[in-house]
Structure formats: structure tokens, C-alpha cells
Amino acid sequence: MRSLFSLALLASVFALVLASVAQATVFEPITCIMLFILTFLSKSDENSLLLTLIFAVVFALDAVLVFGLKYGVFPVVESYFIENIYAYGAQLAVSLLLLFLLRHRMTVAVILTRGKSASVFEKNYTEGPLYLLVIMLVFIDFMALMENFLRNLDRMGVDEEIAKAFWEVTFFFDYFAYLKAVPIILCIMLLYVGLIVRTKRQPIQN
Fold it and tell me: CB under 8 Å to 115, separation ≥6 — which residues?
């Protein structure tokens, strides 16, 4: 239990620090603060804590990638087209990782607890909705990446007369942060709801 809590706490703090430094908006730090609070709330329930840990670790990795791209890659890249490939590609990879970890939560539980905790293997009723929301995140990232290619067809050898018809296709580019914010906030709310349901259904085991 203590190791899961420590890992979740460390990951959420690490994500908060990097997100505060690297991000241009306040959304990412707020998300990390919410995860930080949720880590403490789920301290006594390993099942909820494990799900929180998965999100905290993935958000921390996302913060590392954003920090690295912003200060290591973007300054040496002269094309917004290439920058967007790196940015959306990294976001897609992170969302796919989150989807993979949720899909294989039991395996993660075995590795982290060495099979010594029975509660982490119990069914959490939020897993299904969480899985659907993360699929939505994957879809948004994928569509943003594809839109970037569509908007820059001329850079990939397509005749400019054809390519310019797609230059103004910027829906995912314009609303990317908002589109991502909704499922992420819903995920954190579901983690909280899952914790409440579990604590009301049965006493928390220390």
C-alpha cells in the first residue's frame, strides 16, 4: 500500500512541477493538482489508488515529453508542420500507453503488489467508462495528427492547387486543448466517483 501511495504521490508532484514550467495554459497544472488530491483521498483503498497511479504516471510522462519538446526539439525545428507531428505524435503515444495500462491493469497490479493485495484485483465499476474516455483521447490525438498532414499536403508532394483546398482545415488544431480537457476531467471525476462507490460499498481495509 505504502509503495503504491508513494509512487502515485511522486508521479503527481513530478507532473505538476513540469506542467507548471512547460505548459502555456493552466489546465495541465490544475489536472495534476486534482490527481494529487485524489491520491490522498484514495490512500486507504489500493484498488482506486492503482487506477490513480496509472493516470499520475502517464500524466507525468506527458509532462516530460512536453517539456522535452518545448525546450529541446521545437527550438531547432523551423517548420510548424514538423513541430505538430512531434507534438500530436507524442500525445497519441501517451494516450495509447494509458489505454494499454488500463487494459492490462491486472498485470500492472501483479507487478506492483507482487500479488499480495487482493483488493487491487477487485472489479472497479469505473473501468469501463474510463476505457471509453481514453479511447476518445486516442481518437482526438489521432485526428489532430491526421488533420496536420491533411493541412500540409503540399509539403508532402501534393500539387498546391489541390492542397490549398485543405489549408483552412483547422478544427482539431483550434480546439485541441478543449477537446482533450473534457475527457481528462471526466476521467478524474470518474476516479473520484469510483472511490466513493467503493468506500460506501464496503469498509476500507488498512
Answer: none
